[in-house]
Amino acid sequence: MSVRVRRVYDPPEPDDGVRVLVDRLWPRGVSKDAARVDEWPKGLTPSTELRRWYHAGEGPYEEFARRYEAELTDPEAAQLLDHVRELATKGPVTLLTSAKSPEQSHTAVLVRLLEADRH
Question: How far apart are CA 41 and CA 119, in angstroms?
């Protein structure tokens, strides 16, 4: 299983595989052609409320990650996570985000959950 994270502003690479945008909002300044997004499962992204709470600096990353993981137990989100997991068993998957620090964003939670499930 190959899952990696890249910023959506970086140019696509041949080995990206399926490119999945995991942000709820379309990234500013990026055209749909340039982004080359294959899938955009908005239901897999943090809720608007959680995203705003975290970006307002109201809590630490660990609390954000805990709350986001709880949101991922929602049936729609769980189904979308299973779908990405299925894609990753067939070939490379690149999770795309506009986050400036992907390692301190929801993408790190997604990668951790996807990697934990393969053991």
Answer: 25
Tell me which residue of 84, 76, 74 sits closest to 113, measured CA to CA.
84
Model confidence pLDDT, tens digit, residues 59-102: 899 999 999 999 999 999 999 999 999 999 999 999 999 998 88
The encoded tokens of residue 89 equal: 């068993």
> pTM value?
0.92
**AA letter at 54:** Y
Q: Which residues pair with 94 in a beta bridge?
A: 4, 19
SS3 letters for 15-30?
HHCEEEECCCCCCCCC
Q: Which long-range contacts (CB under 8 A, 24 or more apart) does 35-42 make?
A: 35/8, 35/96, 36/12, 37/8, 37/96, 39/87, 41/80, 41/83, 41/84
Cα(56)–Cα(11) distance, integer angstroms: 29
